[in-house]
Amino acid sequence: METENVKRDSCFVGKGGYAMRNKVSNVLWGVFWIALGVGIAGNAFRIWDFTLFFRGWWTMFIIIPCLISIIKNGFGNGSTIGLVIGILLLLTQREVIDGSVIRKLLVPIILVLIGINIMLKGIFTANQKVHLNVEFGPGQNAIFGGKTQHYTGEVFRGTEANAIFGSVRLDLRDAQIPEDAVIDASAIFGGIDIFVPQGIRVKVSSTSLFGGTSNHVKMKAPDDARTIYINTTCMFGGVDIR
Fold it and tell me: Full-prediction pTM beyond 0.90?
């Protein structure tokens, strides 16, 4: 049950939407392998002349996984860039586009795609972050170094953690959490480890660029459990929650 002082711009993405995208991606993978098998079987019985090895066939092993990843997980940097590069390579192999032009524009295209992706994430996902009307404790910052904070018997309501070319370790396993709490974590070329107590519900909102957030808290919390909302921003870094 959520406290009344939770103020959200929007809710987190529900499990139902992810499950549906996961099913769609599984169906697409299934259709791909079935079509490949039927095509080869048709060749064996001389029903048709099917060949996988058309000019530029190898680009399909870039395009198809990236396309399915986009359907499943949305427009991530890696999948989007991979899809565009795969399509450009296919067009080059088919002699639709001059390969020398692609080689000259490859780096600028990647940079533009990264910029577009960052802007779209800022527009469409920034509102997913959760803000609570609580007073943060001292921030935990590590710049070109390491910082460890172990909360022992202290009341924890929220904090900010920043790891820039460094590492931060937040240990909340012995903290007192009387109400919902929030952590704003930023890992820029660094890493943040967060340890939460048992019986606590964790909800994550993440914006990542060549990095990511791993939530290993899988235990189902009771209905009256407190929630720690963790807003993460990762650029060439990561946040690990345990």
Answer: no
